[in-house]
């Protein structure tokens, strides 16, 4: 009992440190140089790579519903990458996002590729490794939800091997922005002006495209549906399809289904008035 209580206290302390690092230290480290910021971000990067089996903390114990530590760190990296585009976001926040995005994309890519290889090699009747599936679901929820300030995309994408090895991605991003800035593809030529309030974008999906495609044929419905969501968003970024009604993500559909199962919302979406 004492050991379990100590583990919970350690877990809560770790979460408090991550919250402080993400919400207080990194957004306000304007006086710190880039190597110092990179070392601070590396705390989350190393945590995101922590195997669940390396510690009993964070949901690996029987009956323990705490979120695994790696998942928490991935979500914290997501928060850092998501900042930008608001008056309240400082230059430090953008700088930190530039550092955090390559780490987040690299980790997400590794998780997806490893899962796809393991899934393809498994026998048809093999049971899914729940821990691995939960990690992939966490990664895909982050990938689908993430939108980026273009300033973060520009600097951070160059820190990823896929970007450096494929000049076409850089060219594609430039043309997409020119098209958005001029509002039509027809006038999006060289030298087209960039909109002063350039919209947020999903450049990370282009970097992760190969890894996403490798997971398309997975037998796990939760993963397959989220991969489909991500690839649909690639189409949205390219202007091939539009986001609108009926475009709920798998995560949103699961929440709605759970709510309906609890009797809080009928199948037709009508709100029940409780008396």
Integer-rounded radius of gyration: 20 Å
Counting DSSP E segments of at least 2 residues, the number of strands comes to 0
What's the story with the biggest beta sheet? none
Find the structural class using helix and strand composition.
mainly alpha
Distance between the termini: 43 Å
Tally of individual helices: 12
Uncertain parts: 54-58, 184-197, 264-275
Keywords:
12 helices, mainly alpha, 275 residues, single chain
Structure, explained:
The chain is mostly helical. The protein has helices at about 1-25, 35-50, 70-80, 90-120, 130-145, 150-155, 160-165, 165-180, 205, 210-215, 220-235, 250-260. Helix 5 (about 130-145) runs parallel beside helix 11 (about 220-235). Residues about 55-60, about 185-195 and about 265-275 have low confidence and may be disordered.
Structure in a nutshell:
This protein is an all-alpha fold. Helix content is 61%, strand content 0%. It has helices spanning 2-25, 34-48, 69-82, 91-121, 130-145, 150-157, 161-164, 167-182, 203-207, 209-214, 221-237, 250-261.
What is this structure's SSE topology?
Blueprint: H1 2-25, H2 34-48, H3 69-82, H4 91-121, H5 130-145, H6 150-157, H7 161-164, H8 167-182, H9 203-207, H10 209-214, H11 221-237, H12 250-261
């Amino acid at each position: 009992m004492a050991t379990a209580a100590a583990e919970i206290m350690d877990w809560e302390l770790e979460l408090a440190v991550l919250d402080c690092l993400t919400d207080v230290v990194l957004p306000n480290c304007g006086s710190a140089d880039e190597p110092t910021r990179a070392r601070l971000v590396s705390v989350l990067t190393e945590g995101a790579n922590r195997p669940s089996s390396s510690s009993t903390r964070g949901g690996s114990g029987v009956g323990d519903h705490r979120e695994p530590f790696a998942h928490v760190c991935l979500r914290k990296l997501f928060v850092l990458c998501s900042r930008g585009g608001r008056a309240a976001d400082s230059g430090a926040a953008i700088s930190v996002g530039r550092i955090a995005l390559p780490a987040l994309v690299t980790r997400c890519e590794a998780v997806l590729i490893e899962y796809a290889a393991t899934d393809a090699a498994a026998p048809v009747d093999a049971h899914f490794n729940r821990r691995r599936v939960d990690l992939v679901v966490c990664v895909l929820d982050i990938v689908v939800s993430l939108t980026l300030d273009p300033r973060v995309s520009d600097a951070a994408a160059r820190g990823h091997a896929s970007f450096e090895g494929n000049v076409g991605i850089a060219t594609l991003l430039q043309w997409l922005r020119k098209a958005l800035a001029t509002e039509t593809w027809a006038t999006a030529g060289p030298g087209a002006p960039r909109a002063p309030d350039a919209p947020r974008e999903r450049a990370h999906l282009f970097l992760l495209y190969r890894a996403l495609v490798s997971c398309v044929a997975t037998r796990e419905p939760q993963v397959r549906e989220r991969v489909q969501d991500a690839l649909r968003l690639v189409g949205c970024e390219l202007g091939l399809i539009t986001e609108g009604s009926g475009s709920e993500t798998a995560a949103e559909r699961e929440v709605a289904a759970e709510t309906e199962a609890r009797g809080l919302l009928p199948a037709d979406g009508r709100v029940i008035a409780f008396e």
